[in-house]
Amino acid sequence: MDYSKVLRNNNKIVSRTGGQGQGVQYTSDLSLRFVLSGNERYDIGRRHLSIYPDSFLILNRGTKYSTETDAGDPVQSFAINFDQQFLQDFKECWTFGDGKLLDQGNESIKAQPEFSETIYPFAGDIRYNVFHLKQHLDDGMQDEMLINEYLHHTLINYFNIYNDEVYKKADKLEFLNQGTKIEIIRRLNLAKEYMYSNYNQNVNLEDLAEHACLSVNHLLRTFKQAFGLTPHQFLIQLRLKRSLLLLKDTRYPVNEVVSMVGFECPSSFIRLFRTHYNITPLKYRQSA
């Protein structure tokens, strides 16, 4: 269902379906971009990011971007744009009230309002909250008080994800300077988003390191420290996770799914899938 809903406090929610792309645009507010089916590519400068149903993208205010979708695979997208005043009120209440989020102190949070524009995992509480909000809006709900409560909880969910994906992972790095840790995490997230967007291609360490502006050895050492996995292990898990989405779609035979997620050998894919999920791909499809 397509709609663009602007609330009285200027928060905006956009639901869109179809295979069309959009030209160059600028974000007016902090924006969370979700893809509920299909995939959508965002071009931000030299970065080309592909968003799938298991991930979402953050765009800060004033970011220049364009989008593109595959005409053969209809996309269902959902975007939440937070008004600056609503966002600032939330941040002051949340961070100053109990100081338990981001663990960075009031001054540094207020001085750095922008968030890392990268791909984040769309799972757990934020997925549950966004799907419930969309269902209510699809059913015609007009209660702005309730809608804003959902938006408030979406921000809580995102701040928790940001804390997990940036600050908690930075704490795992073996550096003394906090600023250095945050910068390394920012670069590692560039490597991670490259894998999110190119997981079905032949990804190599040199490409990852170049994308992250790190040496290969620096990438290997810090990636394992932050994420508990090597880049190769992370890529394999990502491919397996993406195969779950495709196996639910009976249009694709299992052998075709193997190549679609970047595996070359069906037997290797089946073995890894069974090891990781304790079920074969065919039985998973039948149960799903």
Strand content: 15-25%
- CATH topology label of the largest domain: Jelly Rolls
Series of secondary-structure elements, N-terminal to C-terminal: EEEEEEEEEHHEHHHHHHHHH
| Structural class estimated from helices and strands | alpha+beta
Uncertain runs: 104-113
How many DSSP-defined strands? Answer: 10
Rg (CA only): 20 Å
Mean pLDDT: 89
Q: How far apart lie the N and C ends?
A: 25 Å
Count of domains: 3
Order of strands across the biggest sheet? 1-2-9-4-7-10
CATH architecture of the largest domain: Sandwich
State the name of the first-level CATH class of the largest domain: Mainly Beta
Main sheet specs: 6 strands, antiparallel
Spatial shape: globular
Total DSSP helices: 11
Helical percentage: 40-55%
Question: What does this protein structure show overall?
Answer:
GO terms for molecular function: DNA-binding transcription factor activity; sequence-specific DNA binding. Residues 189-287 form the HTH araC/xylS-type domain. This is Helix-turn-helix domain-containing protein. It comes from Mucilaginibacter celer. Strands 1-2-9-4-7-10 form a 6-stranded antiparallel β-sheet. It has a 4-stranded antiparallel β-sheet with strand order 3-8-5-6. Strand 5 (40-44) and strand 6 (47-51) form a beta hairpin. It is an alpha+beta fold and 288 residues long. It has 3 domains: 3-170, Sandwich (Jelly Rolls), CATH 2.60.120; 176-226; 229-288, Arc Repressor Mutant, subunit A (Orthogonal Bundle), CATH 1.10.10.60. The longest helix has 27 residues, at 144-170. It has helices at residues 84-98, 106-111, 125-138, 144-170, 178-198, 205-212, 216-227, 231-247, 254-260, 266-277, 281-287, and strands at 3-6, 12-18, 22-26, 30-37, 40-44, 47-51, 55-59, 64-69, 75-82, 119-121. Helix 3 (125-138) runs antiparallel to helix 4, helix 4 (144-170) crosses helix 5 (178-198) and helix 5 (178-198) packs across helix 6 (205-212).
